[in-house]
Specification:
Layout lengths: L1 E6 L6 H16 L4 E6 L18 H12 L2 E7 L7 H9 L9 E8 L6 H14 L2 E2 L4 E4 L12 H21 L1
Parallel strand pairs: 1-2, 1-3, 3-4, 4-5, 4-6
Helix pairs in contact: 1-5
């Protein structure tokens, strides 16, 4: 099983820190899972312009291929202006719909207000529904206050939610295989 963790931002470091913590829990739960991290900061991805996904080249093609070859997903985004990042939306636009169909998606988000967790419910889950993906019941929203100065998560409840999400990703993907 190949889990692709997507860090859907080109700024900041908190989202990646949370993704890495979930991936650590996944590895603890099942060391056999192949994990691949797609950190969008590391790629120069073109804007979606309506071409077939096969027509892109370079980093854009590499990113599309990574998404297409995954068995399940852990998707992370900071919340900016009450929404997912443009980087993540562009990735969803570039990838073929079939890349996500009947695959498990888990979500994490970071933000500066406590209400921004609703973006997962009101934006990410409907996108997963459009793709006909299965969504893990748990998700993790981490507020800036949940991090210490070293960018480590210090809130016990958040750490518990991270564990639950990791368990659900493993269990759901194994059940669907």
């Amino acid at each position: 099983m190949k889990l692709l963790a997507i860090c859907g931002t080109i700024t900041g470091s908190k989202t990646l820190a949370v993704l890495n913590k979930v991936l650590e829990e996944v590895k603890n739960g099942d060391p056999a899972i192949e994990i691949q991290l797609l950190d969008m900061k590391q790629y120069d991805v073109q804007f979606c312009d309506g071409r077939s996904p096969d027509a892109y080249t370079g980093d854009t093609k590499q990113v599309i291929d990574m998404v297409s070859s995954a068995d399940c997903f852990l998707i992370g985004t900071p919340i900016f202006q009450g929404s997912i990042t443009g980087v993540l939306k562009n990735l969803f636009d570039l990838a073929p719909v079939s890349a996500f169909r009947h695959k498990v998606m888990g979500f994490i988000a970071t933000g500066g207000t406590y209400q921004h967790y609703l973006v997962i419910e009101n934006q990410l889950k409907p996108i997963a529904g459009y793709f006909r993906a299965y969504t893990a019941p748990s998700y993790v929203y981490v507020h800036n206050d949940h991090f210490n100065a070293a960018n480590e998560i210090t809130d016990r409840d958040v750490l518990d939610r991270i564990s639950y999400l990791a368990e659900e990703l493993i269990m759901m993907q194994k059940a669907l295989k």
